[in-house]
TrEMBL record:
PANTHER family: DIVERGENT POLYSACCHARIDE DEACETYLASE SUPERFAMILY, UNCHARACTERIZED YIBQ-RELATED. GO terms for biological process: carbohydrate metabolic process. This is Divergent polysaccharide deacetylase. It comes from Desulforamulus aeronauticus DSM 10349. PROSITE patterns: PROKAR_LIPOPROTEIN. Pfam families: Polysacc_deac_2.
C-alpha cells in the first residue's frame, strides 16, 4: 500500500514537472504567428529629421492622420515647434540624436551632436540639453552615429540618462556592430530596432516596395519598424507612405506608435 502511494506520488510529481517544462518550452518558442493570435501584426512608421530648416514633407506627415512617430533633431530652427505640433496632433515624439559616424564630417551632424572625443560628463550634459529642445520625447534614436553606437561605453552614457528619464531607445542600426541593444538590455531599458529603411532612394516606386517589405516583416515577426525621412525629398516619402496606407490596412496590419512595439518587446521578455 505504501509503495503504491509512493508510486502515485512519483508519477504525480513527474507529471507536474512535465507540464511546467512544456509550458516553459512553449513560452520560449513564441513566434510571430503566436503573437498574431493575441494581436494583429503591428507596424511603426518612424519619420526622422524633423526640426531642421528643410521642411520638405513636414506638412504632409503632420496631416497624415495615422499614428506615425516623429523623430526630431535637437537645437534646430523648428525643433520645439515640430515637437509641440506633433504632440498636439497625437503623434509620438522622440529625440533624433545626432552622433558621430565612422565615415563623414562632424560638421554634418548639427548642434547637439555626440562625438567620440567627448567625456562621460560632456555626453550626459549634451544629451540632457538636447532633450529640452525636443519636448514630449518618449524615447530617442540615432541620426547616423556608427562610431558612437559601436562603442558600448559611449552609448551607455546616453542610456544611463535615458533610464533616469524613463525613455526608451530605438536602434536605427546604421552599423552591424551596434552595441545599442546589448547595452540597453544590460541597463534594462526598453528598446526597439529598425527593420527597414524606406527612402535610401527617393522614388515613390522604391519607397512603396520598402513599405511592402515592412509589411512582410510585420506579418512574419508580429511587428516591424520602418524609418523614413523629411527634409530633402521628404514630400516623395510622404506621398508613398500615404498611398501605402490602404494596402497596410487590407493586409490586416495595424499602424501603431513606436512605444507599442517597445511594449511588445517587453511582453515577450526580451529585456
Ligand atoms: Zn537622421
Amino acid at each position: 500500500m505504501v509503495r503504491k502511494c509512493n508510486l502515485r506520488l512519483i508519477f504525480g510529481v513527474a507529471f507536474l514537472f512535465g507540464c511546467v517544462f512544456l509550458a516553459f518550452i512553449h513560452n520560449l518558442s513564441a513566434t510571430g504567428e503566436e503573437l498574431q493570435e493575441k494581436h494583429p501584426p503591428v507596424l511603426a512608421i518612424v519619420i526622422d529629421d524633423f526640426g531642421g530648416a528643410d521642411i520638405h514633407g513636414v506638412a504632409e506627415f503632420m496631416n497624415m492622420n495615422v499614428p506615425i512617430t516623429v523623430a526630431v533633431m535637437p537645437n534646430l530652427l523648428h525643433s520645439i515647434e515640430h515637437s509641440n505640433e506633433a504632440h498636439q496632433r497625437g503623434y509620438e515624439v522622440i529625440l533624433h540624436q545626432p552622433m558621430e559616424p565612422v565615415k563623414g564630417k562632424k560638421s554634418w551632424l548639427g548642434p547637439g551632436a555626440i562625438t567620440y572625443d567627448m567625456s562621460d560628463e560632456q555626453i550626459k550634459t549634451t544629451f540632457v540639453k538636447n532633450l529640452e529642445s525636443v519636448p514630449h520625447a518618449s524615447g530617442f534614436n540615432n541620426h547616423t552615429g556608427s562610431k558612437i553606437t559601436s562603442s558600448r561605453e559611449k552609448i551607455t552614457f546616453m542610456l544611463e540618462v535615458a533610464k533616469e528619464k524613463g525613455l526608451y531607445v530605438l536602434d536605427s542600426i546604421t552599423t552591424p556592430n551596434s552595441q545599442v541593444i546589448p547595452a540597453a538590455k544590460a541597463l534594462q531599458i526598453p528598446w526597439a530596432k529598425r527593420d527597414i529603411f524606406l527612402d535610401d532612394i527617393k522614388s515613390v516606386e522604391y519607397i512603396t516596395k520598402q513599405m511592402k517589405k515592412g509589411c512582410q516583416v510585420a506579418k512574419k515577426q508580429g511587428y516591424a519598424v520602418v524609418i523614413g525621412h523629411v527634409g530633402h525629398g521628404g514630400e516623395v516619402t510622404a506621398r508613398a507612405v500615404k498611398e501605402a496606407i490602404p494596402f497596410i490596412q487590407q493586409e490586416g496590419i495595424k499602424i501603431v506608435p513606436l512605444s507599442e512595439i517597445v511594449r511588445l518587446n517587453n511582453e515577450k521578455g526580451k529585456i
